[in-house]
Amino acid sequence: MMIIIERYCNGKNVVMVKMKRKPTHPGHILKEDYLVPLKISVTEMSEKLGVSRKTLSKILNEKGSVTPDMALRLSRALGTTPNLWLNLQKNYDLWNAKHASTDWKRVSPLPAQMLHSEP
């Protein structure tokens, strides 16, 4: 992992951690760190969360995303925070977007004096 200073924004340095590997999907973490060790089936967990088995299976099989609603449900059931699940999903999504296309690299940054000028 490398730490780089991304840019100066609102009087503060914004630090961005650049990952060299693809982040782990939150469904994988849910499966391997919670369901497997706790011996909870997909059906049992989906009932506990109040969602369909299909919805949970999509997340566990890395075909679906953790939504804010699901993050609230997971955090309540597992004693975590919603931000844990949302940050895992955000990191996974951003990494995929960054590596799926380079179109975003054609965007030119606005000049610093424009961004930091006093009105």
- Low-pLDDT sequence parts: 1-6
**Order of strands in the sheet with most strands:** 1-2
In N-to-C order, the SSE pattern is EEHHHHHH
**CATH homologous superfamily descriptor of the domain at 24-83:** lambda repressor-like DNA-binding domains
- Give the second-level CATH assignment, the architecture of the domain at 24-83: Orthogonal Bundle
| Average pLDDT figure | 89
Oligomeric state of shown chains: single chain
Number of strands: 2
- Tell me the major beta sheet: 2 strands, antiparallel
* Number of separate helices: 6
Determine and state the CATH class of the domain at 24-83: Mainly Alpha
Shape: elongated
First-to-last CA distance? 39 Å
Characterize the structure shown:
The chain is built from 6 helices and 2 strands, in the order E-E-H-H-H-H-H-H. By secondary structure, it is α+β, with helices and mostly antiparallel strands. It has a domain of 60 residues: 434 Repressor (Amino-terminal Domain) (Orthogonal Bundle), CATH 1.10.260.40. Strands 1-2 form a two-stranded antiparallel sheet. The longest helix has 19 residues. It is elongated, with a radius of gyration of 19 Å. The termini are far apart.
